[in-house]
Design goal:
Helix content is about 40%, strand content about 20%. The strands form four sheets. A nine-stranded mixed β-sheet has the order 7-6-5-8-9-15-12-11-10, sandwiched between helices. It is built from 19 helices and 18 strands. The longest helix is centred in the N-terminal third of the chain and has 39 residues. Helix 4 packs antiparallel against helix 5 and helix 8 runs parallel beside helix 16. The protein is elongated, with a radius of gyration of 32 Å. It is an alpha+beta fold.
């Protein structure tokens, strides 16, 4: 055990002693005298630095002892692993026990502890007839969404591969039951997350980024949420749900809402923005969204609830006067140039009057359309930008579509594909399909142009800078669908669907919050979604108890990014070999797993 220097008082004198700490047979901490250096005053008379020099020597001895012990532990572990490998091949009779466990789960748990999530779940459980540990069951869903996203059955079975002790989550049904409870507690959970994240990121919500996506089910069964609609992922003949998501300027989600799969995305934005503005008492809020959500009703509704907006604008079908102003080569106001003077991008601002028309409904199709009556007007600024690089990309994209369209003209079976079908004219009655060159020529005029609509009096560069952050919400959807695998959904009842998406939302918030904190501490170039999640998934140790007197954990991953990530959130990096007590201390675990399965 480590040594330490102490100055103790005995009667009227102080004495210098070196102690060694140990535990007796009952596990109680005790200490014994190893060296006695006599009276303090006599030692200081000989050497004023006597105590300091003694402490330095003892520290060096402790460091050497720790180094030798670590080396011996590693050598023992290597010898044991060799025996385990031989036993697996049948080369000896003593098989031994070992099991691979993921320690990335300890990092996830520490983040949730920092955000006081277990404490919140335990509070929500009080006074309710919940027969299972609400906090641990909800945590298991979040953990497995990081480590091995899959069905609830697989999540339940995979809990044994985590360093976290999930012994109290002992019934698969509890994972389904917790989905129902999550549905009831959504408001409290989301507000708690935002409150804790605001404390740690100093979040000031002045801009809310909104977008919509769809999640399909491998089913044709319609329910309150599941229904057929326009799929963002081009999933046909499958029911889906629509999810609207609001994100802050740091790329961390704030809130979401789930809608039926057949709802139009136009009607999803304003209710959620209004709820966020009122819930968090935001005096000023800039709403940023893509052009798919830009309609007169939404713009006027945002103004009515006191929100400003920076939203992409459809412009190719605008009035002839506006189109002329956009294409005018002489009224550019602002330029961004390269070092050699070449223009990278140029801007102009157009003053446009937005009209709100009374909506009417067709008695045959039941679709709503704008009537002639004008209910109100609004002055807007259209920020027009032109980029040569964007023009080259638009042309390249169109050229690829033209090549596909040409092949489709020769092979009519290809006409069902989207993306290039609009470039082909299909005559009614007799006649063959042909390329619509007039339409292609019209499209080419708009290569490189982009328009942003805003009610703010800001410069084109400021408006563009705000809008460019919208890509982060697309990244949220990408992470949700690819890394966290929110789809395919393995639940079917509406309460379970709602709880499933809340569970996935919690995981997404945690993932984005972790990424933000890590980028802030480690640098943007150091960390990405892929690197962070891969490090968490591959951070594994092997538990070995061939020698029951000295069970060990052997680290399987190389020292590097996961260690730095752990340090950011207050955990200690693991050595190549750890004892159960040291591993528990470094990972802040209440109980380290020591059970193993036989090879």
């Amino acid at each position: 055990m480590p040594l330490h220097v102490s100055v103790v008082k005995v009667k009227n004198h102080q004495y210098i002693r070196v102690y060694s700490s140990y535990r007796n047979e009952k596990g109680q901490p005790r200490s014994r005298i190893i060296e006695n250096h006599g009276r303090l005053d006599a030692a200081l008379e000989k050497d004023p630095q006597y105590v300091e020099n003694l402490k330095k020597r003892i520290a060096q001895e402790n460091a050497l002892e720790a180094q030798n012990k670590s080396l011996e532990l590693e050598n023992q572990a290597k010898r044991r692993m060799d025996k385990l490998a031989d036993s697996a091949k049948g080369l000896n009779e003593k098989p031994g026990n070992f099991k691979s466990l993921n320690v990335g789960s300890a990092l996830i748990r520490k983040v949730l502890l920092d955000l006081k999530m277990p404490e919140m779940f335990r509070h929500l459980q009080k006074g309710r007839k919940i027969q299972y540990p609400y906090d641990q069951t909800a945590y298991l869903l979040t953990e497995q969404r990081f480590l091995n996203p899959s069905s609830k059955l697989k999540s339940f079975n995979n809990r044994a591969h985590s360093i976290i002790d999930h012994g109290q989550v002992d019934h698969l049904e509890d994972l389904y039951k917790v989905l129902d409870v999550l549905q009831e507690d959504k408001k409290t959970i989301v507000r708690h997350l935002n409150k804790e994240i605001q404390k740690r990121t100093k979040r000031t919500v002045t801009a809310a980024f909104y977008d919509v996506t769809t999640y399909s089910f491998e089913s044709r069964s319609v329910s309150e949420y599941k229904d057929f609609g326009l799929s963002k992922d081009h999933k046909v003949n499958e029911v889906q749900v629509v999810l609207g998501l609001v994100m802050d300027e740091n790329g961390i989600p704030i809130d979401y809402e789930l809608f039926a799969g057949n709802i139009s995305e136009f009607g999803t934005m304003v209710p959620l923005i209004k709820k966020i503005k009122n819930t968090y008492h935001l005096k000023q809020l800039i709403v940023v969204a893509d052009r798919g959500l830009n309609c007169a009703e939404n713009l006027f509704a945002l103004k009515e609830i006191g929100c400003d907006f920076v939203i992409a604008q459809k412009f190719k079908n605008s009035a002839a006067e506006i189109k002329t102003q956009i294409l005018d080569p002489d009224n550019w106001e602002e330029f961004i140039c390269k070092d050699d003077g070449e223009v990278k991008c140029q801007y102009k601002t157009l003053n446009v009057i937005q009209e709100l028309h009374e909506r009417k409904e067709s008695p045959t199709t039941h679709r709503r359309y704008p009537g002639p009556k004008v209910l109100g007007t609004m002055e807007l600024n259209w920020i027009v930008s032109y980029s040569p690089a964007r023009a080259a990309k638009d042309k390249a994209d169109r050229d690829r579509a033209i090549e596909k369209a040409k092949k489709a003209v020769d092979d009519p079976n290809r006409l069902r594909s989207c993306g290039y079908k609009s470039l082909i004219t299909i005559p009614k009655g007799t006649g063959s399909p042909r390329i619509n060159w007039d339409k292609i020529k019209e499209q080419a005029k708009w290569d490189g142009y982009y328009v942003i609509c805003t009610n703010l009096e800001i410069s084109p560069h400021e408006a563009t800078s705000i809008y460019r952050k919208l890509w982060q919400i697309e990244d949220c959807f990408r992470v949700s669908k690819t890394h966290l695998k929110t789809r395919p959904c393995f639940v079917w009842t509406d309460p379970h669907i709602y709880g499933h998406f809340l569970s996935c939302f919690i995981s997404l918030v945690i993932e984005k919050y972790m990424l933000f904190m890590l980028k802030r501490e480690l640098g943007k170039e150091e960390i990405t979604h892929d690197k962070m999640l891969e490090s968490i998934k591959t951070a594994r140790v092997v538990y070995d108890d061939i020698n029951p007197q000295v069970p060990l954990y052997l680290r399987l991953y190389e020292a590097g990014l996961f260690d730095r990530m752990s340090t950011v959130f207050g955990l200690d990096a693991l050595n190549r070999v750890e004892t159960p007590s040291s591993l528990r201390r470094k990972l802040h675990l209440p109980i380290a797993k020591t059970l193993a399965t036989q090879t």
